[in-house]
């Protein structure tokens, strides 16, 4: 067994373990709807609709999935209930494929012509934003990249302190200013330092207040404007971090942030310990923004690059 096989096996175990609660919940519900049924009929589909909605896949996405399964059932004339799990998996993978959630086997390679590669991280407080940044920095570092972190969430001392701790842990420099400083100024300093030191990646944390969309929009626009002045085209990625364990609330946050700024990728955290993992499918479908990373635990390596087939297999696999 090569070292890569070992890592992929280890990652698969982390994925399975992280999605355990969602899988158990979905599986027990799916098992109940097919008891005593030999073929997929309207009542099975009605029950399946309820299973998906109660697993936080979301109403609109659930209806799409059911419609696709209905088409297959009518086309194949006779579909037995044993095949239902397989069909469900196939249709969800297809749906995620259409939504531009491309399998990014190496989420830590960056375009060589963009240096530093600038990632602006957005999301409300408490979703695991700073932890995600720390874990990202760790993964980039392991991939041989030099990283700078910018503590532009200057409204919370805790956020700055937490980022500094992660910086020490991962051994990457953290650029910060005093409490309440202008976030755009911190972003300016971070990217200037990253550029001067020929760093590969600069990751900027931002404030997660959602008091009003206009304020948030203005602040994020200002930060982006400053970044673009130093590194034309920056930020290259706007990563929205969502807490998967909040289920439908994560949809609401995605709505607010996508309205306030151009989000280009999603990280969905805290999927371990919750039965709401279906939210990944719904959010990817509704917002047409690729899910790039998923958080499956507290460990420093528990942030994984999202791979749709493996994710769906873990969710519905035996």
UniProtKB/TrEMBL annotation:
<protein>
    <recommendedName>
        <fullName>Signal recognition particle receptor FtsY</fullName>
        <ecNumber>3.6.5.4</ecNumber>
    </recommendedName>
</protein>
<dbReference type="GO" id="GO:0005047">
    <property type="term" value="F:signal recognition particle binding"/>
</dbReference>
<dbReference type="GO" id="GO:0005737">
    <property type="term" value="C:cytoplasm"/>
</dbReference>
<feature type="binding site">
    <location>
        <begin position="205"/>
        <end position="209"/>
    </location>
    <ligand>
        <name>GTP</name>
    </ligand>
</feature>
<dbReference type="GO" id="GO:0006614">
    <property type="term" value="P:SRP-dependent cotranslational protein targeting to membrane"/>
</dbReference>
<keyword id="KW-0342">GTP-binding</keyword>
<keyword id="KW-0963">Cytoplasm</keyword>
<dbReference type="Pfam" id="PF00448">
    <property type="entry name" value="SRP54"/>
</dbReference>
<dbReference type="InterPro" id="IPR013822">
    <property type="entry name" value="Signal_recog_particl_SRP54_hlx"/>
</dbReference>
<feature type="binding site">
    <location>
        <begin position="269"/>
        <end position="272"/>
    </location>
    <ligand>
        <name>GTP</name>
    </ligand>
</feature>
<comment type="similarity">
    <text>Belongs to the GTP-binding SRP family. FtsY subfamily.</text>
</comment>
<keyword id="KW-0675">Receptor</keyword>
<feature type="domain" description="SRP54-type proteins GTP-binding">
    <location>
        <begin position="290"/>
        <end position="303"/>
    </location>
</feature>
<keyword id="KW-0472">Membrane</keyword>
<keyword id="KW-0547">Nucleotide-binding</keyword>
<keyword id="KW-1003">Cell membrane</keyword>
<keyword id="KW-0378">Hydrolase</keyword>
<dbReference type="Pfam" id="PF02881">
    <property type="entry name" value="SRP54_N"/>
</dbReference>
<feature type="binding site">
    <location>
        <begin position="123"/>
        <end position="130"/>
    </location>
    <ligand>
        <name>GTP</name>
    </ligand>
</feature>
<dbReference type="GO" id="GO:0005525">
    <property type="term" value="F:GTP binding"/>
</dbReference>
<dbReference type="GO" id="GO:0005886">
    <property type="term" value="C:plasma membrane"/>
</dbReference>
<dbReference type="InterPro" id="IPR027417">
    <property type="entry name" value="P-loop_NTPase"/>
</dbReference>
<dbReference type="InterPro" id="IPR004390">
    <property type="entry name" value="SR_rcpt_FtsY"/>
</dbReference>
<dbReference type="InterPro" id="IPR003593">
    <property type="entry name" value="AAA+_ATPase"/>
</dbReference>
<dbReference type="InterPro" id="IPR000897">
    <property type="entry name" value="SRP54_GTPase_dom"/>
</dbReference>
<comment type="subunit">
    <text>Part of the signal recognition particle protein translocation system, which is composed of SRP and FtsY.</text>
</comment>
<dbReference type="InterPro" id="IPR042101">
    <property type="entry name" value="SRP54_N_sf"/>
</dbReference>
<dbReference type="InterPro" id="IPR036225">
    <property type="entry name" value="SRP/SRP_N"/>
</dbReference>
<comment type="function">
    <text>Involved in targeting and insertion of nascent membrane proteins into the cytoplasmic membrane. Acts as a receptor for the complex formed by the signal recognition particle (SRP) and the ribosome-nascent chain (RNC).</text>
</comment>
<dbReference type="GO" id="GO:0003924">
    <property type="term" value="F:GTPase activity"/>
</dbReference>
């Amino acid at each position: 067994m090569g070292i890569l096989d070992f890592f992929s096996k280890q990652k698969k175990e982390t994925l399975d373990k992280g999605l355990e609660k969602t899988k158990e919940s979905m599986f027990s519900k799916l098992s109940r709807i097919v008891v005593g049924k030999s073929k997929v009929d309207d009542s099975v589909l009605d029950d399946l609709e309820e299973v998906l909605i109660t697993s936080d896949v979301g109403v609109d996405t659930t209806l799409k999935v059911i419609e696709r399964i209905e088409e297959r059932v009518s086309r194949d004339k006779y579909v037995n209930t044993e095949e239902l799990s397989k069909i469900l998996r196939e249709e969800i993978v297809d749906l995620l494929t259409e939504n531009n959630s491309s399998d990014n086997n190496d989420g830590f390679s960056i375009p060589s012509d963009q240096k530093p590669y600038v990632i602006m991280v957005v999301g409300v407080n408490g979703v695991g934003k700073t932890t995600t940044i720390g874990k990202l920095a760790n993964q980039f570092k392991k991939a041989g990249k030099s990283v700078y972190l910018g503590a532009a969430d200057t409204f919370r001392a805790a956020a700055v302190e937490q980022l500094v701790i992660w910086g020490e842990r991962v051994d990457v420099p953290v650029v910060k200013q005093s409490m309440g400083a202008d976030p755009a100024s911190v972003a300016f300093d971070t990217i200037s330092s990253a550029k001067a030191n020929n760093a590969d990646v600069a990751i900027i944390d931002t404030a997660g207040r959602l008091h009003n969309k206009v304020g948030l929009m203005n602040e994020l626009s200002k930060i982006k404007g400053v970044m673009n002045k130093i590194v034309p085209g920056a930020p290259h990625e706007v990563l929205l971090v969502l807490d998967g364990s909040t289920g439908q609330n994560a949809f609401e946050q995605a709505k607010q942030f996508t309205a306030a700024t151009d989000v280009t990728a999603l990280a969905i955290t805290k999927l371990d310990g919750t039965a709401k993992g279906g939210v990944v499918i719904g959010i990817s479908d509704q917002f047409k923004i690729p899910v790039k990373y998923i958080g499956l635990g507290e460990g420093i390596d528990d942030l994984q690059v999202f791979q749709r087939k493996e994710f769906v297999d873990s969710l519905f696999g035996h």
